[in-house]
Design brief:
Number of strands: 12
Strand order of the largest sheet: 4-1-11-12
CATH topology of the largest domain: Malonyl-Coenzyme A Acyl Carrier Protein, domain 2
CATH class of the largest domain: Alpha Beta
Radius of gyration: 19 Å
CATH architecture of the largest domain: 3-Layer(aba) Sandwich
Order of helices and strands: EHHHEEHEHHEHEEHEHEEHHEHEH
Strand content: 15-25%
Helix content: 40-55%
CATH superfamily of the largest domain: Malonyl-Coenzyme A Acyl Carrier Protein, domain 2
Length: 323
């Protein structure tokens, strides 16, 4: 019999309205939103899907405005709340998994599913994580998605580039994200185009995430985790940092501190899960980013035996239950 993995997306999949259908349909989802609001002091439901956005707009220096849902310190807690609410409804209906993992921020959704963090503790930690990452963002950081080149080539180009630039995310074959100093990322981008990249796309992000420039944010996060209850791992999860299974909570803090400034090894995570016999992958939360990656990670000979599902709405949950 096959195995199931629950997977949780990261920052970038957020949108106004996310989670509302589940919130309206299930009392358990509303309960999770309430827990998040009490743990953080924020109007999480309003942040996620209130139609009148005036109170959630932040003015910029150029006269424009940005919705808080797209600002790191708010995005992270909003995303996690939606993921946790969907997961809680699934749990209430008796749906279980053999393994779990999440991309970057999504790893905290996985930690809830793994039993490592309770809902309230996860929300408190992620609220601080978002603030620390926002405050640690140095002037002059950037990220870009490199399409159509192997990791070895990208790593080689980064190593020869003046200034600091490195790989942030191993998303899937043909899509790797680089991060670092703005000038270095720009120079590496040009070099990567010359090396044969199909495209290099600058990302609209607020800083060089998953780079050594974010080490101070990780150090601050470690102090918050010190004051947080870390439970035994009840469901094995895969660490972003190592792309290896975690079955003992002894290294959880160290891995989460490193995660902020380390590469996210998502492609390697999925390859590990396939080798472990997983044939059902369920993306939980906003967007279908991880489902999209699956199409490129799964080898042609495995396509027929592996199924990928997405659950964010009551309809998607019903379809999964009745599959």
């Amino acid at each position: 019999m096959g195995k199931t993995m629950f997977m949780f997306p990261g920052q970038g999949a957020q949108y106004v309205g996310m989670g509302k259908a589940m919130y309206d349909e299930y009392a358990k989802a509303r309960e999770i939103f309430d827990i998040a609001a009490k743990a953080t002091g924020l109007d999480i439901a309003g942040l996620c899907f209130k139609e009148d956005r005036d109170e959630f707009l932040v003015p910029g220096k150029d006269g424009s405005s940005t919705d808080k849902i797209n600002i790191t310190e708010y995005t992270q807690i909003a995303m996690l709340t939606v993921e946790a609410a969907v997961y809680a409804v699934m749990e209430e209906q008796g749906l279980k998994c053999d393994f779990t993992a999440g991309l970057s921020l999504g790893e905290y959704g996985a930690l809830i599913a793994a039993g490592v963090f309770g809902f309230e503790d996860a929300f408190r930690v992620v609220r601080q994580r978002g603030i620390f990452m926002q405050e640690a963002v140095p002037v002059g950081g950037a990220m870009a998605a490199v399409l159509g080149l192997d990791a070895e080539v990208i790593d080689g180009v980064c190593g020869k580039t003046d200034g600091y630039v490195s790989i942030a995310n191993y998303n899937c074959p043909g899509q790797i994200v680089i991060t670092g100093e703005e000038a270095a990322v720009a120079a590496a981008s040009e070099a990567l185009k010359e090396a044969g990249s199909r495209r290099v796309v600058p990302l609209n992000v607020s800083g060089p995430f998953h780079s050594k420039m974010l080490v101070p944010a990780g150090e601050r996060l470690g102090k918050v985790i010190d004051e947080t209850t870390i439970n035994k791992v009840s469901v094995p999860y895969v660490s972003n940092v190592t792309a290896q299974l975690v079955t003992d909570s002894v290294n959880v803090k160290e891995l989460l501190v490193k995660q902020i400034s380390s590469s996210v090894r998502w492609q390697q995570t999925i390859e590990l899960m396939i080798n472990e016999g997983v044939d059902t992958f369920v993306e939980i939360g906003p967007g279908k980013t991880l489902s999209g990656f699956m199409k490129k990670i799964v080898k042609p000979e495995d396509q027929g035996r592996i199924s990928t599902y997405h659950i964010e709405t009551p309809e998607e949950l019903k379809a999964y239950v009745e599959r």
